[in-house]
Every structure is written in structure tokens, then in C-alpha cells.
Design brief:
Elements (H helix, E strand, L loop, with lengths): L3 E2 L4 E6 L5 E7 L9 H11 L16 E4 L1 E2 L2 E2 L4 E6 L19 H7 L17 H17 L3 E9 L2 E2 L8 H11 L10 H10 L7 E8 L13 H11 L3 E6 L10 H4 L3 E4 L2 E4 L7 E2 L2 E2 L4 E7 L9 E5 L4 E5 L10 H19 L1
Antiparallel strand pairs: 1-2, 2-3, 3-7, 4-7, 5-6, 8-9, 8-10, 10-16, 11-16, 12-13, 14-15, 17-18
Bound molecules: flavin mononucleotide (FMN).
């Protein structure tokens, strides 16, 4: 059972959605780092449920740091952050009736029924709160090196806004900083996206979140197993609800010819840049100095209050389930700070 990721910036998660607490232990924070707790709080707040379209669970996400920090300065030892669960309702879950779209059935078989099934246990989206904490620390270390991570909701269901690839990122930087403070981080289509989510209720919808990293030095990444793509993909797919990942043009690159797909290096004065960015800032697994651009496909929230087929494991028969409880109507609305966090963790680990 692996709850640990990373080589130099190593994160271990613990806890379950409906247990006493969740949290993380981070190894690899440079001693002497003065943590900016305001910035951590901003990131935690971005992930928290906000507005009427996200879950009504009160995920306050207040945290305690129980080791690794002395007088707000990191002491070089593992930092452990504990986030209490304060609003768990246990009656919403039944161990013997797996919810469609969730890990319930597979986990029941794998752990012989001993896993904490309440609220999805350690498969829950709630586990992303400590990830956001760990990512917020990583972001602070990266920003000192001039590396910044941005994201936005690129699409909801079949409605799409402009991609980072279509925009001049330098001119939209201020806007990107600004949308980090929005409950719904989109560049232009917030109202349309919200309407789509409402129109589809009580069913749920999915979407695509786009992430961009600026300032990664040329050559960062390793060939093969620790390439930027493999490192980030592993982290992306570790987030509950992520069903697809692409870098640069992704699957669309197959529609281009080689000469069009190639990003050609070019001198502007003494600096080398590329004339296009079909590869999303990565060649051979290494950063080439262009913005790193990637996208993740976020599934529609599995818990919907619509009757669906399932099984009763105790009785050994088919049955039906309508999932009640307090659920996000679209996970895509909450995913941006999570994706930024795991991206920051991955890039920092490779530096
Ligand atoms: C931030 C966040 C919030 C989530 N909220 C919910 C939710 O309220 N209801 C739900 O059914 N799934 C929610 N999920 C998704 C499930 O945890 C996830 O789909 C499920 O564990 C199965 O994992 P899989 O989709 O990766 O296969 C959320 C995921 C994230 C990242």
C-alpha cells in the first residue's frame, strides 16, 4: 500500500475522509525556509467547498503543524501537517452496497472489507486537502526560483474557453494571478459553465482543467521513467476523478504532419526560443524552456441522486441505489488548486 510519492520532495499522506483527521508528512523542505502561512491559507481556501454548486460538507481545512517547523521556520526535519475532519456524517454510506463510479467494490475485495468505506475512506477527494498543503509549500520554494504554476477550467461538458496554447501567456499573467482568487477559476466562461452545471442537475458533469508552468529551466526532467510527463502524469492520475492527461497538443498532434508538429528553435537576439509549442514545453522528457502546458480530464462526480444499478454484497443480489448526501455537482470546479499543487510537487522533485 503506497501513500508516499517523490524522491527529493517526498510526501506521505495519511487519514481517511471520515476518520479523525487527514494530513501529510513532507520530507525534503530546505532547512531555513520561512513558510508564508498566508499563502498556504490562500491555497487551502481555494480548495475548500465554495458556493452552492460544491458540497455542503463543511471542510474547514484548518490545519495544525506538529513537527518540522520552529518559530515559523523549517528546521530540516519532516514536516507533518494534520487536518481534523469536523463534519462527517456516517449514515450516508453502506459497506455492502458499492456506489457506482466509486472505488467501493474494488476496495472491498482488495482489503477484504477492512477498509474504511465511509465517504470513500482514503479514496476520497478529501485527501486532496493535504496535497494542496504540500503543493503550497512546494510553490513557495519554486517561486523563489522564478517558477510559477497556473491553471484554469478549460471546459465543462462540451463548452470550452480559450486554451493557454491560443493565448500569449505573458499578457494574461495578471489575469491568471487574479483568477487564483476566484471560486471558479476560468478566464472567460464562468457564467456559461455554471449554467451547464445547473442545467444538468441532479446529474453531474465533467470538464478539463489546463495547467501551465512558467520558468522551468531548460534540461529539467530525466529521460524515460522520471521524464516531466511521466512524473506529472503519475501525480495527476493519483488525484481522484482524473481520467485523462495530455501535454502540449496531446492526442491532437496525431492530426498534424511532422513538419507542422515540430517546434523549431529560433534565436531572438541572444536567446533561444521556439516558434511553436506543440510539445507543451517538453522534448525527450526534459523542459525546453517554453511554457509547460498540460491538461487533465476530470470525470463527472460519481455520486448523483439518480437511481442506478448496483449489487448487495451481503445478500448476493442485484439492487438499486440512489446516492444521497452532500456532493460536489462538478469536481472540475474544485480541481484547479489541486492540479497546481501536484504539478508544483512534481516539478520541485525533478529540480
Ligand atoms: C476535490 C475533489 C472533490 C470530490 N468530491 C466528490 C464528491 O463530492 N462526490 C463524489 O462522488 N466524488 C467526489 N470526488 C471524486 C471521487 O473521490 C472519485 O471519483 C472516486 O474516489 C473514484 O475515483 P476515480 O474517479 O479516480 O476512479 C471528488 C474528487 C476531488 C479531487
Amino acid at each position: 500500500m503506497s501513500f508516499t510519492t517523490g524522491n527529493k520532495y517526498k510526501i506521505t499522506l495519511f487519514g481517511t475522509s471520515h476518520g479523525d483527521c487527514i494530513g501529510c508528512t513532507i520530507e525534503g523542505i530546505p532547512e531555513g525556509l520561512e513558510i508564508d502561512f498566508e499563502k498556504i491559507d490562500t491555497e487551502m481556501k481555494r480548495r475548500k467547498p465554495q458556493g452552492t454548486l460544491t458540497t455542503k460538507r463543511k471542510e474547514t481545512d484548518n490545519y495544525d503543524i506538529i513537527s518540522g517547523v520552529l518559530d515559523e521556520i523549517c528546521d530540516g526535519s519532516p514536516l507533518t501537517c494534520v487536518i481534523p475532519n469536523t463534519d462527517a456524517i456516517f449514515s450516508d454510506y453502506n459497506k455492502d452496497i458499492p456506489r457506482p463510479g466509486h472505488a467501493d467494490y474494488a476496495a472491498n475485495i482488495k482489503y477484504n472489507g477492512y477498509n474504511d468505506y465511509r465517504g470513500g475512506g482514503f479514496f476520497s477527494g478529501r485527501m486532496t486537502a493535504p496535497l494542496v498543503f504540500a503543493g503550497a509549500v512546494a510553490k513557495q520554494i519554486l517561486e523563489k526560483k522564478g517558477i510559477y504554476v497556473y491553471s484554469h477550467i478549460l471546459s465543462v461538458k462540451d463548452s470550452k474557453e480559450a486554451s493557454f496554447s491560443d493565448l500569449d501567456c505573458n499578457t494574461i499573467i495578471n489575469r491568471l494571478r487574479e483568477i487564483k482568487t476566484y471560486p471558479f477559476p476560468c478566464l472567460e466562461k464562468e457564467k456559461e459553465f455554471i449554467n451547464i452545471i445547473k442545467e444538468n442537475s441532479p446529474d453531474s458533469v465533467g470538464g478539463v482543467c489546463e495547467i501551465m508552468v512558467l520558468g522551468v529551466p531548460v534540461g529539467v526532467g530525466e529521460p524515460f521513467f522520471d521524464s516531466i510527463e511521466s512524473t506529472l502524469s503519475k501525480l495527476f492520475f493519483s488525484v481522484p476523478g482524473i481520467k485523462g492527461v495530455e501535454f502540449g497538443d496531446g492526442f491532437k498532434i496525431t492530426e498534424l504532419t511532422g513538419s507542422v508538429a515540430n517546434d523549431c528553435p529560433h534565436y531572438i537576439k541572444d536567446e533561444i526560443t521556439f516558434l511553436s509549442n506543440h510539445s507543451g514545453g517538453i522534448n525527450g522528457g526534459l523542459a525546453n524552456g517554453m511554457p509547460i502546458i498540460c491538461r487533465v480530464a476530470v470525470r463527472p462526480t460519481p455520486s448523483v441522486s439518480i437511481e442506478q444499478e448496483t449489487v448487495d454484497l451481503e445478500k448476493g443480489e442485484n439492487t438499486k441505489i440512489t446516492v444521497h448526501g452532500r456532493h460536489d455537482r462538478a469536481i472540475i470546479l474544485r480541481i484547479a488548486p489541486v492540479m497546481e499543487a501536484v504539478t508544483a510537487m512534481g516539478i520541485l522533485d525533478l529540480l
